[in-house]
């Protein structure tokens, strides 16, 4: 087991390096000029003296060959130093760490909500005896997946903030400001979870051991929740791993719509301003989250199903 | 819509503002185009002190240092935290005393002497003396490109001499008539000498000490900027309606990126005011418990700027035809808000020394066709003109709202010009600009001094047309050295005419800024550069 984790950690490092390298070169190849953007202060740079721009490029080392810039950035990144933001001058790593707690709150709340709603909906769409109820409920997840996050957010704002002032429309102040964004972010996540778990549950319910359990006198509810749900959980768990990545991506839209501070907003700002150090820090951090989450998910499988031996399964990350 | 009252211009001959015989009449009168659709909102009631005003901005550019910022949203906050040597009257464009009680300018506008008032202090109590003014200007020059606006105002800066405790002389290596107006801007606003010791990053983060009626209380990246009133501030300028401390205890700038959320938040009272309501939502705030106030941004209006080193934009016939083929009235009436106006010059009508040259900008499709016919551009099978097998297909590169240019595209199609719209991100537009590989550029520049014309067009300055020197450059360069308002106005107007006639500038429309606020907000106004001024603002107390 220890060796397995070590091997996965090695692979994780490779993923981080690849993420760093690919994002560096994509940003470098984008048609833009960080120095001109810096000088504009986000505004009108049309009058900036080209000589001053050259000074600025030299100051940030943007005048060096791209390979030198890359190796230098990589060398610093190895020591968790991503350089100073082009816009504010603050260390990029620090900006990510500052933005992180707010995004963790948001994604954490959304994930919890998604699990409750997703599992609830999956069970509700398989348990009832009435066929039409099951059909109706199982048509909800595809709808939820199809709704654009952006639209859901604006709709919730319109109803519950602008027309009926129950929740604040903007900002990060207090748990109450978390409600609408968390619901917005949870909708697609819950829907895809319900979809996968529901399908898996329907499959499991036709398995022979379910018949056996019923024959032994287990109640319908016990068979459904204890036997079938546990066995149906494996594919859902895989989805959950991917979902964490989806939530981080969804935070970009949600944080913008709800004017919340966080990693998503930081990403949008930095990409717009070609703030390469910050984008790099965000990318590496997101890759790290992904590596850790997939590892954790893989380690949880055997707990649910003792037949799974992680040491022999192919590694996905 | 063009008979609106803000068309009136009072071209009062420039009043001499210099205290001594040395003339400097920085600016003559110019129309300002201020119009408040609900004037009762702020005029009648007696101001009350106290309270907070929440104002929505669209973006946080991660810097609020007045000497470094260039973005309108950042400026809205930064402007309030500094006082400047001079102020500019938003009505007349006249330069008024602020921290400087009086000043003298030498004959060729290359040496400026300021006499400071002796009671003003920075927010930390340090006196605003001659030495600290020198520290500020030296520091701005040292900042270089990061002080993008300030460093342009100080081009040719030779140094500041401290004459005595309250007298400084600023010298330039060449004439710089724009400098007096520049001293009224936030970019040359004064920070305490201690602030000059801080790194640019610390200053961006709001750690500086300013000299204005408000000071930075807190700044949370991407979320909000909170300003608090500076106690004991007693050196407001005549450009404002009152003197003494600001009325508001605090001003909170909330960053709200989504336009519909800004509208909803204002409607539902979660914010008090904003200058960023989208055009389609504006009518709902005209009355119904809200008021709108708008002002054209002074400076260079939205223009198509030809890159004359490119083949098509280098063809004078093409440029002139495009200018004649644009129906500016139609653009203003159909795709812009009621507050935006068609261009009547290269400069907007709220710019000091502005004079209308609308006669040069009349819609004349027949004339345009004639010019193209004469130049050998004949209509092809698809309606697009051609010459020597080459189609008259040209491209404009821009990141701003596309609607006005979409209409320009349709209008030009009627005279056989195929204008392609290359709508890119800000980042891309910067890169394309730098590469020099484009036909037409498109933007506006906010500056409450006509010198902006020389800065960008003169072949001896930025030369955005990439052309060789010609007649107009003499006029432009002379305007920088003229301290006589009437003479300067003549030079600027004549230069504008030449720029339009040769198609070096193709003006389209005037950008305006519109404040939308609830009726509880009063006295929130524009300063001369159409930046927001919170000094006279107050809110109803319940």
What does this structure look like?
With 317 residues, chain A is an all-alpha fold. Chain A is built from 13 helices and no strands. Chain A has helices at residues 2-29, 34-40, 50-59, 66-78, 92-124, 131-138, 140-146, 149-163, 179-204, 208-215, 220-257, 263-272, 276-304. Chain A is flat and about 85 Å long. The mean pLDDT of chain A is 85. With 542 residues, chain B is of the alpha+beta class. An eight-stranded mixed beta sheet of chain B has the order 1-13-23-12-2-11-10-9, sandwiched between helices. In chain B, strands 15-22-14-21-19-20 form a six-stranded mixed beta sheet, with helices on both faces. In chain B, helix 14 (451-457) packs across helix 15 (471-481). Chains A and B meet through helix 2, helix 3, helix 5, helix 8 and helix 12 of A and helix 2, helix 4, helix 7, helix 8 and helix 13 of B.
Provide the β-strand percentage band of chain A: under 5%
Total number of beta strands of chain B: 27
- The DSSP helix count of chain A reads 13
Give a short account of the largest sheet of chain A: none
Largest inter-chain contact set: A-B, 57 and 64 residues
Oligomeric description of these chains? heterodimer
* Low-confidence blocks of residues of chain B: 1-43
Q: Give the percentage of residues in beta strands of chain B.
A: 15-25%
- The global form of chain A is flat
The helical percent of chain B reads: 25-40%
- Arithmetic mean pLDDT of chain B: 88
The low-pLDDT segments of chain A are none
Query: What is the rounded distance between the termini of chain B?
Result: 39 Å
**What is the alpha-carbon Rg of chain A in Å?**
24 Å
Radius of gyration of chain B: 23 Å
Main sheet properties of chain B: 8 strands, mixed
Structural class of chain A: mainly alpha
> What is the global morphology of chain B?
globular
Order of helices and strands of chain A: HHHHHHHHHHHHH
């Amino acid at each position: 087991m220890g060796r397995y984790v070590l091997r996965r950690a090695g692979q994780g490092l490779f993923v981080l390096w690849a993420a760093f390298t690919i994002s560096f070169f994509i940003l470098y190849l984008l048609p833009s000029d960080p120095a001109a953007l810096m000088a504009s202060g986000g505004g009108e740079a049309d009058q900036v003296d080209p000589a001053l721009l050259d000074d600025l490029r030299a100051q940030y080392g943007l005048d060096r060959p791209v390979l030198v810039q890359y190796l230098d950035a990589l060398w610093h990144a190895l020591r968790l130093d991503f350089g100073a933001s082009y816009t504010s001058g603050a260390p990029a790593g620090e900006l990510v760490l500052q933005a992180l707690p707010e995004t963790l709150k948001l994604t954490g709340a959304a994930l919890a909500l998604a699990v409750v709603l997703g599992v609830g909906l999956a069970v509700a769409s398989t348990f009832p005896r009435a066929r039409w109820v099951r059909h109706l409920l199982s048509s909800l997840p595809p709808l939820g997946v199809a709704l654009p996050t952006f639209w859901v957010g604006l709709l919730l704002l319109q109803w519950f903030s602008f027309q009926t002032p129950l929740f604040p429309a903007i900002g990060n102040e207090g748990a109450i400001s978390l409600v609408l964004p968390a619901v917005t972010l949870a909708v697609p996540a819950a829907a895809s979870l319900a979809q996968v778990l529901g399908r898996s549950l329907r499959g499991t319910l036709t398995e022979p051991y379910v018949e056996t359990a019923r024959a032994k006198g287990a109640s319908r509810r016990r068979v459904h929740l204890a036997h079938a749900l546990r066995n149906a959980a494996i594919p859902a768990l895989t989805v959950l791993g991917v979902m964490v990545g989806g939530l981080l991506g969804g935070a970009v839209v949600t944080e913008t719509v709800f004017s919340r501070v966080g990693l998503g907003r930081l990403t949008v700002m930095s990409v717009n301003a070609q703030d390469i150090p910050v984008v790099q820090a965000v990318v590496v951090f997101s890759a790290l989250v992904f590596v850790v989450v997939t590892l954790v998910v893989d380690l949880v499988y055997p707990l649910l199903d003792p037949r799974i031996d992680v040491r022999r399964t192919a590694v996905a990350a | 819509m063009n008979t609106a009252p803000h068309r009136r211009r009072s071209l009062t001959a420039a009043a001499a503002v210099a205290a001594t015989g040395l003339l400097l009449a920085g600016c003559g009168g110019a129309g300002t185009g201020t119009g408040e659709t609900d004037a009762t909102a702020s005029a009648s009631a007696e101001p009350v002190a106290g309270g907070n005003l929440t104002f929505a901005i669209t973006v946080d550019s991660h810097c609020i240092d007045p000497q470094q910022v260039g973005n309108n949203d950042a400026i809205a906050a930064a402007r309030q935290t500094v006082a400047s040597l001079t102020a500019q009257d938003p009505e007349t464009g006249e330069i008024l005393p602020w921290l400087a009680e009086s000043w003298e300018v030498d004959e060729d506008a290359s040496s400026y002497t300021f006499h400071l008032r002796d009671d003003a202090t920075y927010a930390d109590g340090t006196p605003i003396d001659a030495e600290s003014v020198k520290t500020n200007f030296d520091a701005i020059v040292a900042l270089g490109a990061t002080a993008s606006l300030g460093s342009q105002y100080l081009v040719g800066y030779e140094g500041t001499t401290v004459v005595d405790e309250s007298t400084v002389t600023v010298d330039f290596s060449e004439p710089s008539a724009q400098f007096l107006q520049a001293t009224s801007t936030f970019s040359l606003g004064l920070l305490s000498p201690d602030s000059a010791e801080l790194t640019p990053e610390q200053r961006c983060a709001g750690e500086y000490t300013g000299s204005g009626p408000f000071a930075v209380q807190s700044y949370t990246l991407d979320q909000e900027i909170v300003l608090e009133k500076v106690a004991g501030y007693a050196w407001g300028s005549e450009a404002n309606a009152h003197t003494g401390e600001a009325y508001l205890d605090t001003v909170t700038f909330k960053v709200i990126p989504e336009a519909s959320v800004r509208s909803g938040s204002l409607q539902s009272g979660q914010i008090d005011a904003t200058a960023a309501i989208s055009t389609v939502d504006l009518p709902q705030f005209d009355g119904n418990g809200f008021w709108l106030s708008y002002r054209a941004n002074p400076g260079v209006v939205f223009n198509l700027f030809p890159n004359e080193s490119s083949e098509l934009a280098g063809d004078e016939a093409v440029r002139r035809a495009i200018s004649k083929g644009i129906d500016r009235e139609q653009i203003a009436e159909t795709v812009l808000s009621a507050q935006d106006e068609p261009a009547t010059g290269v400069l907007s009508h709220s710019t000091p020394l502005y004079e209308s040259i609308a006669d040069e900008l009349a819609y004349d499709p027949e004339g345009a066709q004639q010019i193209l016919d004469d130049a050998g551009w004949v209509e092809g099978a698809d309606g697009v003109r051609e010459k020597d097998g080459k189609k008259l297909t040209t491209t404009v590169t821009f990141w701003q709202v596309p609607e006005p240019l979409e209409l320009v595209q349709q209008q030009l199609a009627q005279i056989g010009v195929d204008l392609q719209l290359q709508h890119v991100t800000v980042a891309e537009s910067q890169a394309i600009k730098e590469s020099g590989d484009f036909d037409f550029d498109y933007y506006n520049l906010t500056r409450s001094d006509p010198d902006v014309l020389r800065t960008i067009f003169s072949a001896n300055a930025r030369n955005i047309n990439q052309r060789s020197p010609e007649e107009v450059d003499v006029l432009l360069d002379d305007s920088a050295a003229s301290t006589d308002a009437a003479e300067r106005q003549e030079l600027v107007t004549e230069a504008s005419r030449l720029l339009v006639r040769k198609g070096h500038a193709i003006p389209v429309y005037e950008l305006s800024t519109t404040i939308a606020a609830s009726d509880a907000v009063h006295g929130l106004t524009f300063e001369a550069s159409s930046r927001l001024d919170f000094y006279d603002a107050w809110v109803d107390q319940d």
